[in-house]
Structures are given as C-alpha cells and as structure tokens.
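User: Could you write out the 3D structure of this protein bound to adenosine-5'-triphosphate? I've included everything you need below.
Assistant: Certainly. Input first, then the structure.
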Amino acid sequence: MSDPILVARGLTKRYGARAVVDDLSFEVAAGAVTALLGPNGAGKTTLLRMVLGLSRPTSGDVLLEGSPYRELPNPSSVVGALLDDHGFHPDRSAYDHLRIMAAANRIERSRCDAVLESVALAERARDRVRTYSLGMRQRLGLAAAMLGEPRMLILDEPMNGLDPEGMHWLRGYLRDFASGGGAVLVSSHVLSEVEQFADEVLIVDRGRKIAAGALSDVVEESSTLERTLLALTGSGETRP
Ligand SMILES: Nc1ncnc2c1ncn2[C@@H]1O[C@H](COP(=O)(O)OP(=O)(O)OP(=O)(O)O)[C@@H](O)[C@H]1O
C-alpha cells in the first residue's frame, strides 16, 4: 500500500455517554478506493464530518497529509467532499455555483469549465439547478469537490437514489480518479454497491471497527462477512 493520505488514531465521538464513533484507527491510501461500510446509524457520517473538520472528536485525531483538516493551508487541494446536503441554490446555474466557489477559494475560473466537462455537465452548465435530476445534482456536487484539484475525494452515500446508469457512471469516475493516484473514501450501507469497485474496505457498526483490509481478502472470508453483514442488516438506530 502506498503512503496513506488519511490517518485516524483512536478517533472517538461521544454524545453524552454514547460513543457514536468508538476508538477507530485506520488509514486511507492514495491510488485506491476505500469503502466505509456500515448500517444506518453506524457512525459513518459522524466519522466523515470529523475528517472534514465539521465536528470535533471527543478524543483521538484524524490527519490529512499529516495535519488536521482545519490546519491545512489549502484544504481544497487536499480533499474534496460530497456530503448529503449540497446546499445548491435552485435558482442559480451550475456554472454560477462553481464560479462563486472558485472565487472564494482563490481557484482559477478556468477550473469551472474543466470540472463541468469532467462530470459531463458542460452542456447544461447555464441552466438553473432546479431543472436538474438527482444524478445531475450529484455530478455538480462532484464537480464542486474537484474544483481545487484535490488528492482525495470523500463521498457520503453518493449512490443513494441514483439509477443504475448513474451508479455505473459514478463508479467509473471514482475508479479513474484512484487510477490517477487519488484517494477515495466512499461510504455506503450496501456491500453490493461498493464491491464492484472498491479496493479496500472498512466495516463499522455502532461506531466500532468490525473488519478492515483489502476487499478481496475480506470477501475471501465471505461466510464471516456475510454473517457480519446479515447481522448489520436491519440493525441501526432503532436497536436497543
Ligand atoms: N448531533 C448529534 N447528537 C446526538 N446524536 C447524534 C448526533 N449526530 C449523530 N448522532 C447519532 O449518532 C449515530 C450515528 O449517526 P451517523 O449519521 O453518523 O450514522 P451513519 O452511519 O452515517 O448512518 P446513516 O447511514 O443513517 O446516515 C446515530 O444514532 C445518530 O442518531
């Protein structure tokens, strides 16, 4: 495995007495797609928010290229993120969204056209976001994440709601990004969504690490994995 871009050590988030992320240590390598897998309520979003400096760990830490997110001098060149809430104004065009983001982050305006092209939105770039399908909004979110030419992409459940064609396109995009040397950390609660394109997997449940390693190794122990994932199915926030 090449040098990790992300290193988490003893990462923990508590709400009151409850540990939502519980003493997690893991690494994310460059040049690979790492799937963060776990049922609803496992702590995936909380984990990703801590990586991105949006939530403070109760203990432990998570470093990107050796620094916490908030101490990175130029974060958009290190990591681009696609979280649930894109926050796109429906009456603004894709191009205008990106132009404003580029200006705020001191990114050359020419990047807007480049990223729109890369996510196949160039032809619709001047249309208002309210006219976009879910898949197009996801691609715009990806374009925004790519503006700063990051070395890592973080995506929280990006397959949710996408049709098979949209999923196929996104898998190809993320695989190409990793093949070009980038690191991808993508969360999902469905193994079948990620097993076709992930290299590494980190499985969490109730905030704890259940399994981690090369997907092929983890799947080789498929009886264990199936049992684990079956145990996960139907679990989540409603459990005692
Ligand atoms: N601000 C908060 N205060 C209290 N509890 C919280 C807070 N944020 C998240 N939680 C709880 O932490 C647990 C993990 O939530 P999280 O959203 O990280 O899980 P997830 O794995 O991303 O699940 P999902 O797939 O449903 O998004 C849930 O039980 C959730 O209710």
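The chain has two domains: 1-78+150-239, 86-149.
User: Perfect, thank you.
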